[in-house]
Amino acid sequence: MNFLSHYYYERDNTNCYFVLGTVLPDLLKNADKNVIIHPEKLDHPDANISSLIAGWKKHLEVDRFFHSSAFFLEHSHALKLELAPIVEGTAVKPFFLGHIAIELLLDSLLITTGEVNPDDFYDHLDSCTDNTIAGFLTFSGMERPEVFLNFFKRFKSERYLHTYAETHQIAYALKRICMRVWPTPFTPAQETAIDHVLIDYRQKINDNYITVFDAVGEGLASNAEKII
Question: What is the per-residue pLDDT across 44-88, written as a single tens digit (0 to 9) for each?
């Protein structure tokens, strides 16, 4: 799941560090794809850092239920089949496009249907201090936490998640994500063609997209009961 989809489960949470923790694995990959840490295996006496760790664990749990859901498997595959002819002859892997595209579409729908407010999400991020975040990253084994903090500052100031409300911006976001792996993933003409596919597909899932959030929520509740 993408940023706002993870936030969907914390939209009533008042702990900014827990909220940040639920999106931190993906934020860190954006900041430096070479950094690999496993704070889910750690404990820390500081309450705020402990909340970041707990949020990180929640992220992993949500992704586990989401990526095994019938909704994700069906729609990521369907998008892969629709997008594959567009990127034929390029280095881009269609399965990668299908995976990322459905996640971006879900974020878009959460905004336009009013399920989440991106400003509330950003308010949580703004409430977290750099010192606490740096302490968490250092404790988790990251040697240069300033790399993340510089990225995080830009991420908060740009507030680009608002653009997901416009479907044509999703194709651009998809291109930017692909550029982390392939420097020139596709041409402007291919981007336009991808945009048309996403517009149509977004309309197709508009009425039932929330079912995947319900299914993941049920998985989380069931797992919590087993722990208790």
Answer: 999 999 999 999 999 999 999 999 999 999 999 999 999 999 999
Q: What is the token pair recorded at 206?
A: 């508009």
Tokens found for residue 46: 């500081």
pLDDT range class, residue 166, cuts 50, 70, 90? confident
Count the Cβ atoms, other than its own, within 10 Å of residue 42. 15
d(CA 220, CA 18): 16
Q: Which residues contact 65 (CB under 8 A, 6 or more apart)?
A: 215, 216, 219, 220
Domain housing 223: 3-227
- Is-above-0.90 flag for pTM? yes
From residue 116, alpha-carbon distances to 58, 79, 158 in Å are 18, 24, 18
Among residues of the chain, what percentage have pLDDT more than 90? 86
CB 65 within 8 A of CB 220: yes
Nearest of 122, 111, 108, 103 to residue 177 by alpha carbon: 103
Count the domains in the chain: 1
Describe the chain by its helix, strand, coil percentages, rounded to 5. Answer: 75, 0, 25
Q: Are 195 and 168 in contact (CB under 8 A)?
A: yes
What distances in angstroms separate CA 156 from CA 91, 153, 168, 210, 221, one per listed residue? 31, 5, 22, 27, 31
